[in-house]
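User: Batch of two.

Assistant: Item 1 of 2:
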Amino acid sequence: MRRRDFDELRRRYWTEDIGEFDSLVILPLKMRHDSGYRCMDFVAVKDGEAMCRLAGGSDVLHIEGVGGYGYDWLSRYNTCPSLVPPVGWSIDCLPTSGLLRMFCHRKIRVGDALSSFEIYSEEAKDA
C-alpha cells in the first residue's frame, strides 16, 4: 500500500476493541504533541490487509505497555514482575511506502488511543 492508502483508512474510536491482528504500521504525522515531539498514528494489519488507523495523537509507543510488563500486569502478578517472558518484536520497512512495520511471533492487541499508545502481544497458548 501507498502512504495515501493508509491515510484514507477509517479511524477506530479511541476505546474500540478491534481484536487481535498480525502487525502494526507506523505513520509519522506532521502534527506535534504538547511535548514537542511529532505524533504518530498506527495501522492494524491482519492477514496482509490493513484494518484501520488506531491512535493519531500519540507521541510515544510503549511495546508491551508502559514498563514492558504486558497487558494488565498488576492484576496478573499483584506486583511489578521480576521476569517478563521475551516476545521477540521485529521491525521492517514496507517495500512501496517505506513506512515501518512492527510485528512479533504472536498476535497483537492495542490499548486505548491516548497520548502514549500501548501495544501488547497476545499470551502464548502454552504459557
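Item 2 of 2:
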Amino acid sequence: MRKCLLPLVLLVAGCTQAAPAQSQAAASQPAVHPVSGLPVIPLTVTPIGGRPHVFRVEVASTEAQQARGLMFRTAMGPDEGMIFPYSPPQTVSFWMKNTVIPLDLVFIGPDRRIESIAANAVPYSLTPINSKGPVSAVLELNGGRAARLGLAAGDRVSW
C-alpha cells in the first residue's frame, strides 16, 4: 500500500509547486476592465504640498476607444477613471454625448501637470469642452471628485 501512496504524494506535491508559477504569470498580466475591455493602470496625482492620490484608470489609446470613452457607463468607482493619452500633445475638445454620469475632465499638460479642470461636465451635453492649450492626456473622473480631493492646476500626474 505504501508504494501506491508514494506516486500520489509526489503528484500532489508537484501540483502545489506549479500553482505559484501560474499566479505569478497572472500577476504580470495587465489588468483589464470588465466592461470596456481596456487595460487598467495605476495613475497618481500629487497635489502641490499634499498627499498623492492613486486612481485605477482605463487607458483609451486608440481613436475608436477615445471616441467611445465613458459613453453609456452608468457608474464608476470613486478611485476609478479613464485616461486619454495624446502623442504628440495637442489641443483637444470633448463633449458628453451619450455620457450618463457627470464627469470632471482633468487636462494634463506636456509637463505632466494639471493644466486645467472642467468640473462636473453635464451628462448628454453636446457643448464642446476644450483644453486651454496642447495636452498630453485628459483624465476623466467622477464629477466633483477633483474638488473633493483638492486637485488643482499645477498638480503632478504620473502613470
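Residues 30-158 form a domain with the Jelly Rolls fold (CATH 2.60.120.1140).
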